UniProtKB/TrEMBL annotation:
Entries under SUPFAM superfamilies matching the protein: Transducin (heterotrimeric G protein), gamma chain (SSF48670)
Role of this protein: Guanine nucleotide-binding proteins (G proteins) are involved as a modulator or transducer in various transmembrane signaling systems. The beta and gamma chains are required for the GTPase activity, for replacement of GDP by GTP, and for G protein-effector interaction.
GO cellular component, one term: heterotrimeric G-protein complex
InterPro entries according to UniProt: G-protein_gamma, G-protein_gamma-like_dom, GGL_sf
Pfam family, one: G-gamma
Source species of the chain: Betta splendens (Siamese fighting fish)
PROSITE patterns membership: G_PROTEIN_GAMMA
Gene Ontology BP terms: G protein-coupled receptor signaling pathway
Name of this chain's protein: Guanine nucleotide-binding protein subunit gamma
Membrane topology: Lipid-anchor
The family this protein is said to belong to: Belongs to the G protein gamma family.
SMART domains, A to Z: G_gamma, GGL
């Protein structure tokens, strides 16, 4: 697409994009980090990677047998 455009058109597109970006509301990184940490810690009690999966809800445990590689 950019190959078919003149330099002036490309610069106009870049200027329009920069105008959009400058009007985007920004927040400090520290505030975003605090929110992210609070979110993750709120989900921590239900996280199966941290807490584990109970045997009765684990589809890979049970009396299905196993695989033996010889």
């Amino acid at each position: 697409m950019a190959r078919d455009m003149s330099d002036k058109e490309i610069l106009k597109m870049e200027l329009d994009q920069l105008k959009k970006e400058v009007s985007t509301p920004r927040t400090p990184v520290a505030a975003n980090c605090t929110d992210t940490i609070a979110f993750v810690e709120g989900l921590l009690p239900n996280d199966p990677l941290i807490k584990g999966v109970p045997d009765d809800k684990n589809p890979y445990k049970g009396d299905k047998g196993g695989c033996v590689v010889t």
